[in-house]
Write a structure and sequence with these properties.
The protein has 155 residues and is mostly helical. Helices cover 61% and strands 0% of the residues. The chain is built from 9 helices and no strands. 35% of the residues are buried. The model has no long low-confidence stretch (mean pLDDT 93).
């Protein structure tokens, strides 16, 4: 009830946090109020939070979140969301590995490399031949991290 009440709050950070929270807990019945809350203000962060919630509800892909990387005022917020998604649903990040933008491919590689999903190594290996040298470098480091994680004894 508290998160839903904050959707109408005039203080934008509360609105943003409530949308994120409802997305994280998976309250799909809040999709309508989330969309209404997001369209009720002109704020990129709130719109991005709504895109994240829609993704978490299975209503959208990560492209809208990745597109926010081009906006410096919300790029960090987008990176946080993509990092969370890489841990929870790494397959959703795979589409970003095929974008024409090297910066987006690099970020996708970074978040998959930090996801601790050792099975993502096979997904990343083709990027060791990427035409952008910076993507190759980030891919090499991501694979090294995943391999190191795979050798750590798990409880």
């Amino acid at each position: 009830p508290v998160l839903r009440a904050l959707l109408a709050n005039t203080y934008i950070p509360f609105r943003l946090l409530s949308i994120e929270g409802l997305g994280r807990i998976g309250d799909q019945s809040a999709l309508g109020p989330i969309n209404e809350s997001a369209t009720g203000v002109n704020d990129g962060g709130v719109a991005l939070a709504a895109a994240y919630a829609r993704f978490m509800f299975g209503q959208a892909d990560v492209v809208a979140i990745a597109d926010a990387l081009e906006h410096p005022d919300i790029a960090v917020q987008a990176k946080v969301y993509l990092s969370e998604i890489a841990v929870l649903k790494p397959d959703a990040i795979h589409a970003l590995l095929r974008t024409p933008n090297p910066s987006t491919r690099m970020l996708a590689v970074e978040v998959l490399g930090a996801s601790r999903h050792v099975d993502e190594i096979a997904t990343l290996e083709p990027l060791l031949k990427d035409p952008a040298p910076e993507v190759v470098e980030v891919t090499s480091e991501a694979i090294r991290r995943l391999r190191a994680y795979g050798t750590v004894a798990k409880p």
